[in-house]
Amino acid sequence: MPIFEPWSAEQTAQIIAKHRGLEGPLLPILHDIQRAFGCVPEKAVPIIAQALNLSRAEVHGVVTFYHDFTSEPRGRHVLKLCRAEACQAAGGDALAARAEAALGVSIGDTSPDRRVTLEPVYCLGLCATAPSAMLDGRAVGRLDDERLDALVAEAQR
Amino acid sequence: MSLRIFIPRDAGAVAVGADEVATTLLTAAEKRNIEIQIVRTGSRGLYWLEPLVELARPEGRTAFGPVTAADVESVLDAMLADAGHKLRLGPVEDIPWLKRQTRLTFARCGVIDPQSFEDYCAHGGGKGLQRALSMGPQATVESVVQSGLRGRGGAGFPTGIKWRTVAQTQAPQKHIVCNADEGDSGTFADRMIMEGDPFVLIEGMTIAGFAVGAGKGYIYIRSEYPHAITAMEAAISAARRCGMLGKKAGGSEFAFDIEVRAGAGAYVCGEETSLLESIEGRRGIVRAKPPLPAHHGLFGRPTVINNVLSFAAAPLILERGADFYRDFGIGKSRGTMPIQLAGNIKYGGLFETAFGISLGELVDDIGGGTFTGRPVRAVQVGGPLGAYFPRALFDTPFDYEAFAARDGLIGHGGVVVFDDSVNMAKQARFAMEFCAIESCGKCTPCRIGSTRGVEVIDRIIADSARAANLAVLEDLCNTMKFGSLCALGGFTPYPVMSALTHFPEDFGAAPRSANRLVAAE
Q1: A77-156: CATH, from 3.40.50.10320, 1.10.1670.10, 3.30.390.10, 3.40.30.10
Q2: Residue A149: pLDDT above 90?
Q3: Alpha-helix residue ranges (DSSP H) falling in B346-491
Q4: Which of A100, B121, B135, B399 could be stapled to B333 by a disulfide with Cβ–Cβ 3.0 to 4.6 Å?
Q5: What would the pLDDT profile of A50-103 be if each residue is shown by its tens digit?
Q6: Spatial distance between the Cα atoms of B205 and B354, rounded to a whole number of angstroms
Q7: How much is the mean pLDDT over chain A?
Q8: For residue A106, what pLDDT is reported?
Q9: Tell me, what's the pLDDT at B220?
Q10: Which DSSP symbol is given to B158?
Q11: Strands (DSSP E) along B318-357, which ranges?
Q12: Within an 8 Å CB–CB cutoff, is residue B342 touching chain A?
């Protein structure tokens, strides 16, 4: 389970400094900020923009373009269910409905207690052991009702 | 007694318990005081048998699978006593599914330790680069041209021509970019190579760098592939230590290095110009072409951008010669294609074979039909932008032109099988919905067309002015196909129109033949 650090301008500056020497440093910087704080806070945008000599709009545009970057932290656990064709063919729709019912959240939402975020993902590359899911970065294949229920229980802990 | 055992670390094997099997096996062996060495390999690609555990024996490796943690004690008994076991599959190389394949690109995948450069070299790795270095850049490019290799990412553009264009472009700096943004559902060959034989990709990119005069390479890997990112980074470090990368790459006077960049969850970044924008740190917005990336690519410099499998084919082409590779395949589709069998399929996995095999043989014979046991109704070939084929088209040979002639595409070689419970109107709707979610927004046919497409299909499903809306859908698909900037908007009509053409009954229309009669009246 990821534990996020509280927002810190100083740490943001350190992350920027670490990647500044790269050509095209913005995505590596945003990934590290997301990893550290669980999101890319609004407050980080002007700091990044100034350091990279970009406009705030440009940085904001990049942050909002990519599904991985969020402005608010996700839940303590993130359960990603593959919703792409190979998993659909293997019964993924029914499993997604089951997960929504068990967790009481719709796909794309976080539970009110911030315990779990249920996200769609479009392919994990585990298409020959479909349907598949990922819980906090751990890949799970050959999902059935039983395996899904175990994942849901783990996510609710 | 000492045992040497191979267990995959491939994400597909780990997802079904390979890590638990490895830990349990280690504990069990310790308890019995048996010396054991576990090598974590890539996957052989026989996913219905994963976790596949292999035991080294003097005559070769013997396989057991699918092994769960609960099976470990009894499998260990069988290994020690050389006795029979319900999961014992015999010599791994003799498993018919593997034996039928022509493994050129995947020859080492599942065999070697992907973290060991020594193991890579011991299994023939590194020879392609040495040969390229001795032949010189121009002969290297011509060798790839002569091999007939076409881009394995989906577009099928001749790889050698791309290389030649970049080689002939004068610039102080050039780049090699590997597209490892394998976002198509039903595909996982790039992931398998990166996790199972990462050095072959490094070698292929280094050959490309030498051939065109580029000093720096980037591998753009999607963030949904954390295992592949880790494996690739470890392999690059090892390749630097061992001198395949660096100031004297492969012991030559040519300097080359590679950096991994992680994607951030945007499907459209698999489109080459959008990918370049993303590395540069911008929104993954598609660029208009021309200029081609070969002239004006990453950071405005001439760039070779190829798929993982295209680069991974290069070392063998150099080592064995263009003719060797070109002799496989049919028509203008030369060499082998790593085909990925996925979805509702009994024997799913990676099947590398020469072009020309029929779709029916792949699905029914090799794939064994569906795992639900119900009849196969539709097969989507080439990812979310590929057409749905009915059984009536199962005689189509796996070949770029043959699929194009039937309004389909082979794309990156993914084959997703659906049984008779599938609703094709729903699948067509999903294709539009997916395009709407993932559209970069630059061109109107894709950005707006996809959303209108969902609405029109909804009206057709709801039987609201069906005939008029079917005409609108067809018209909309034409606009998207010919008016979009890239394949996302341009190819979304393939799944939509193929579903409509081959399965009209799912859209509430009369079956195809009756429909035609009505139209004729």
Answers
A1: 3.40.30.10
A2: yes
A3: 359-360, 400-405, 424-438, 444-461, 466-483, 487-491
A4: B399
A5: 999 999 999 999 999 999 999 999 999 999 999 999 999 999 999 999 999 999
A6: 23
A7: 96
A8: 97
A9: 98
A10: B
A11: 329-330, 333-334, 336-343, 349-354
A12: yes
Contact B143, B135 (CB under 8 A): yes
Partners of A141 on chain B (C-beta within 8 Å) are: 12, 15-16
Q: pLDDT band at residue B508, thresholds of 50, 70 and 90?
A: confident
Q: pLDDT-derived band of residue A3, with 50, 70 and 90 as boundaries?
A: confident
What structural domains and CATH numbers belong to chain B?
A: 2-99 (3.40.30.10), 117-326 (3.40.50.11540), 330-419 (3.10.20.600), 424-520 (1.20.1440.230)
The SS3 call for residue A63 is: helix
**B207 touches B163 (CB < 8 A):** no
Pairwise CA distance, residues B328 & B149, whole Å: 11
The two structure tokens encoding residue B428: 């067509």
- Name the nearest CA neighbour of B468 among B458, B477, B459: B459
What is the pLDDT averaged over residues B199-205?
A: 98
Angle at CA A29, nearest 5°, toward B272 and B228?
Answer: 55
Burial A109-138 (b: 16+ CB within 10 A, else e): ebbeeeebbbbebbbbbbbbbbbbbbbeee
| A127 contacts on B by Cβ (under 8 Å) | 185-188, 340, 342-343, 348, 414, 416
ipTM above 0.90, yes or no: yes
How many helices (H) and strands (E) chain A has is answered by 7, 4
Identify the helix (H) or strand (E) that includes residue B180: strand B175-180
Strand partners, B221: B180, B262
- Per-domain residue ranges of chain A: 9-65, 77-156
How far is residue A108 from each of residues A74, A83, A103, A133, B130, measured CA to CA in Å? Answer: 10, 12, 12, 14, 50
Q: What H or E segment, with its residue span, contains residue A139?
A: strand A138-140
Chain A residue numbers with beta carbons less than 8 Å from the beta carbon of B349 are: 128
pLDDT level of residue B343 (50, 70, 90 thresholds) = very high
Q: Do B430 and A137 touch (CB under 8 A)?
A: no
How far is A6 from chain B, CA to nearest CA, in Å?
Answer: 23
pLDDT band at B261 (very low <50, low <70, confident <90, very high): very high
For chain A, list residues whose CB is within 8 angstroms of any CB belonging to chain B: 22-28, 30-31, 52, 58, 61-62, 65-69, 82, 84-91, 121-130, 132, 134, 137, 139-142
Tell if the CB–CB gap between A122 and B267 is shorter than 8 Å: yes
Task: Give the largest CA-CA distance in chain A.
Answer: 52
What residues in B contact A69, CB-CB < 8 Å? 264
Report the DSSP beta bridge partners of residue B6: B39, B54
Q: What is the pLDDT of residue B521?
A: 35
Is the backbone peptide bond immediately before B291 cis, with ω within 30 degrees of 0?
yes
d(CA B222, CA B270): 9
The answer to whether the beta carbons of residues B174 and B166 sit under 8 Å apart is yes
Nearest CA of chain B to the CA of A61: how many Å? Answer: 7
Q: How far apart are CA A127 and CA B72, in angstroms?
A: 26
Query: Would the pLDDT of B217 be above 70?
Result: yes
Residue found under tokens 């638990």: B20
User: Which among B329, B362, B336, B325 has a CA at the least distance from the CA of B97?
Assistant: B362
B294-341: per-residue pLDDT in tens?
A: 999 999 999 999 999 999 999 999 999 999 999 999 999 999 999 999
Whether the CB-CB separation of B117 and B202 falls below 8 Å is answered with no
CB B276 within 8 A of CB B293: yes
